Recover the amino acids of this structure.
């Protein structure tokens, strides 16, 4: 058994699980495991106890408006103060689509129903009836300074706007991103990363997976911890295939 241990906290896997969002958890698990790291996945849903010391990376997936309404009380009122502290103290979070919206201040559904969200990061979301549904390409600057292309898939009615304390996670090359207007996608605050890209995001973007693993393990074991090198050969082939295919289609 390895001395290095990583626990992934998967929030609301029974409710926020659109378009294979579990794939992101599996990518984190697999790329850690292949390096000999001892990995555990803890599922945390409504009514479950949340102990931040037990979690090294938190993952919140996407969901429909209906599911977001079902979990909002548990998320905002019960777990909310703990989640805010985790984010402020630099715990690593990856939040997708509905999970991203729930971290912000509010989500105004296109029918006028307003969901007061956690307000852990300075963003808000207002929806329109017309959804953004498409394969996407982004440019992202990793925390190492390396700039890479990333591929994803988005399906959302929400338009998200960022406040001044939050940076965009990526630049849109193809797709709508946060709101279809400003050319940016997702949000980055401390070690919290949010995106509208669903389940195959980390499987197809291994350097982003490794960035999250590295940040989490440095948080846990200190800045001198170096994530062992691991090939990205097969993931890169999947990403290149996706980009080549998208090049042949109209944006
Ligand atoms: N319900 C939200 C929206 O439509 C989030 C959807 C999702 O997570 N795909 O914007």
């Amino acid at each position: 058994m390895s001395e290095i241990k990583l626990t992934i906290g998967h929030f609301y896997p029974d409710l926020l699980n659109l378009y294979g969002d579990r794939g992101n958890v599996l990518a984190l698990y697999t790329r850690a495991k292949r390096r000999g790291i001892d990995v555990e996945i803890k599922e945390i849903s409504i009514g479950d106890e949340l102990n931040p010391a037990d979690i090294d990376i938190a993952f919140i997936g996407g969901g429909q408006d209906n599911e977001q309404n079902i979990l909002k009380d548990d998320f905002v009122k019960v777990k909310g103060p703990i989640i805010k502290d985790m984010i402020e103290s630099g715990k690593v979070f990856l939040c997708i689509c509905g999970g991203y919206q729930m971290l912000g201040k509010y989500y105004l559904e296109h029918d006028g129903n307003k969901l007061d969200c956690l307000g852990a990061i300075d963003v808000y979301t207002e929806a329109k009836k017309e959804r953004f549904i498409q394969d996407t390409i982004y440019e992202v600057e990793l925390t190492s300074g390396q700039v890479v292309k990333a591929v994803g898939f988005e399906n959302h009615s929400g338009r998200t706007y960022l406040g001044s304390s939050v940076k965009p996670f990526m630049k849109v090359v193809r797709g709508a991103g946060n709101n279809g207007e400003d050319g940016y996608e997702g949000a980055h605050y401390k070690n919290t990363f949010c995106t509208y890209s669903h389940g195959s995001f980390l499987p197809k973007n291994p350097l982003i997976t490794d960035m999250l693993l590295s940040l989490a393990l440095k948080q846990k074991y200190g800045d001198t911890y170096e994530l062992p090198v691991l090939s990205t050969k097969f993931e890169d082939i999947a990403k290149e295939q996706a980009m080549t295919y998208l090049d042949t289609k109209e944006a």
